[in-house]
Amino acid sequence: QPHLVESGGGLVQPGGSLRLSCTASGFSLEYYAIGWFRQAPGKERVGVACTSYSGENVDYTGSAKGRFTISKDNARNTVYLQMNDLKPEDTAVYYCAAEIAYYCSGPQAEFDYWGQGTQVTVSS
């Protein structure tokens, strides 16, 4: 069964860094755009970053700009989200999702596969 698995979450102090991984199993990410999303307690799930299937085009939303970096390694069938200068407001469950398209189209319903999520907690 094709699926995505996120890893790398955990507890980190403000100002710290984490690298999340999203690995596909049962299918190749080569022709999939990948989005990272997050859902904070009591809030809706929102987009954080997107990479095109080639990895050449990336974009970020909100406070992720300048602090987060998304990258795609098709050889390892994995997408990463490097998160630096983490803040308490970054605390959330982080999800990756794959859409068979050049780039993320926008609506979450357009994504074909979702991971189960990984918890990121930023606290002193």
Topology (SSEs and partners):
Blueprint: E1 3-7, E2 10-12, E3 18-25, E4 33-39, E5 46-51, E6 58-60, E7 68-73, E8 78-83, E9 92-99, E10 113-114, E11 118-122
Parallel strand pairs: 2-11
Antiparallel strand pairs: 1-3, 3-8, 4-5, 4-9, 5-6, 7-8, 9-10, 9-11
Give the biggest sheet.
7 strands, mixed
Order of helices and strands: EEEEEEEEEEE
The computed structural class is mainly beta
Q: Kindly state the mean pLDDT as a whole number? A: 96
Q: Roughly how much helix do the residues carry, as a percent range?
A: under 10%
Please indicate the percent range of residues in DSSP E strands (runs of 2 or more): over 45%
Q: Which consecutive residue ranges, at least 5 long each, have pLDDT under 50?
A: none
Please state the overall shape, judged from the principal axes of the Cα atoms.
globular
> What's the total helix number?
0
Q: How many beta-strand segments?
A: 11
What features would you describe in this structure?
Strands 2, 4, 5, 6, 9, 10 and 11 form a 7-stranded mixed sheet that branches. This protein has a 4-stranded antiparallel sheet with strand order 1-3-8-7, with no helix packed on it. The model has no long low-confidence stretch (mean pLDDT 96). The chain starts with a strand and ends with a strand. The protein has strands spanning 3-7, 10-12, 18-25, 33-39, 46-51, 58-60, 68-73, 78-83, 92-99, 113-114, 118-122. The chain has no helices and 11 strands. It has 124 residues and is mainly beta.
